[in-house]
Design brief:
Layout lengths: L7 E3 L15 H18 L1 E5 L9 H10 L4 E2 L3 E3 L10 E6 L2 E9 L8 E3 L2 H12 L5 E7 L2 H10 L5 E5 L9 E3 L2 E5 L6 E8 L8 E2 L1 H17 L9 H4 L4 H23 L3 E8 L8 H10 L1 H8 L1
Parallel strand pairs: 1-2, 2-3, 6-8, 8-9, 9-11, 13-14
Antiparallel strand pairs: 4-7, 5-6, 10-11, 12-14
């Protein structure tokens, strides 16, 4: 029997747009970061990799946010200058329906942030993964890095199943594989929510990308639902279009394709599916999140009050 559960994670750079803050905008920027954290708490975020931009307000502020967070901050390679231990936990493990998911976070850093030092992300990721790989079923590497470092991580870090990348404008609507690692890019600044669905039944079979099949299933469902509008209750599509030969042929093809795609997915032991969902005006905020936004966005607040 399959069980489903949803986990919300962030790969880095959620709090600030740049690695530094202009002093005149510090108060406003910190207030916005606080609202983002409050929203993440409400939405049930499970883990956040700290990106280089998240450190823009300094050590005290990011630690203050960490104290307020209802989820762990992680990073395997961020240190306070000259410190011996990382500022955050290198990894965390999440249990979900009997499966253990391991998350490790790294950042490529920024020389302009003098209060922090960044160790080599490849070495840091390897060291962190060694400590958890025998305790988990899947490993997710949350990487706030540039393109070159992304390639190095995929090629030189062992035991990674998924590399989820931030610090990029690029969006992979269909995940790419590099050296056996599934690489996911989901753009930046929260313009898209990336939904990754993983089906896993054993630890030996490889993970197969079924994103194309899922997208076709959704497309077919949309077409069939459109044709079913205004359908008399209890009547099938075939009965409704009994005298429309071309429409009947289309319905038959769509249903056959639907069945084929569903069968392919079901027959695979281990598979994954990724979808990037645009966070536009069509996506409604929950009342709790809308209220948080209203507190920091005067125009939104006025609209809600009206």
């Amino acid at each position: 029997m399959e069980k489903e559960a949803t986990r919300f994670i962030d790969a880095g750079d959620a709090f600030f747009k740049t690695p530094y803050i202009v002093q005149a905008k510090r108060e406003k920027s910190e207030a916005v970061a606080g609202s983002i954290l409050s929203s993440y708490n409400v939405m049930g975020c499970q883990v956040m990799n700290i990106g280089v931009n998240d450190l823009a307000a300094g050590k005290d502020f990011i630690l203050e946010l960490q104290n307020q967070a209802e989820f762990p901050f992680i990073s395997a390679n961020i240190f306070v200058a000259e410190a011996q231990e990382t500022l955050f936990k290198p990894s965390t493990i999440i249990k979900i329906n009997g499966i253990k998911l391991g998350f490790v976070g790294v950042s490529s850093g920024d020389k302009r942030q003098k209060a922090f030092t960044f160790s080599d992300p490849v070495d840091a990721a390897n060291q962190a993964i060694i400590k958890i790989k025998d305790k988990v079923d899947l490993i997710f590497l949350l990487a706030n890095v540039d393109d070159r470092t992304e390639i190095e991580l995929a090629e030189k870090v062992g035991d990674v199943d998924f590399l989820i990348r931030s610090k990029t404008r690029s969006l992979y609507r269909n995940p790419k594989q590099h050296n056996g690692v599934v690489v996911i890019r989901n753009g930046k600044q929260g313009k898209y929510a990336g939904v990754l669905k993983v089906r896993r039944f054993d630890s030996t079979s490889k993970l197969t990308n079924v994103s194309t099949q899922y997208k076709r299933i959704k497309f077919v469902e949309k077409r069939l639902n459109a044709m079913a509008k205004g359908l008399e209750e209890g009547k099938s599509l075939e009965e409704h279009y009994a005298e429309d030969v071309k429409r009947l042929e289309l319905i038959s093809r769509l249903k056959a394709e639907q069945e084929s795609n569903e069968k392919q997915i079901k027959n695979l032991q281990n598979s994954y599916y990724f979808e990037a969902i645009p966070l536009n005006d069509k996506i409604e905020d929950t009342p709790e999140v809308a209220q948080i936004v209203a507190e920091y966005m005067p125009k939104v607040k006025a609209k809600i009050q009206d």
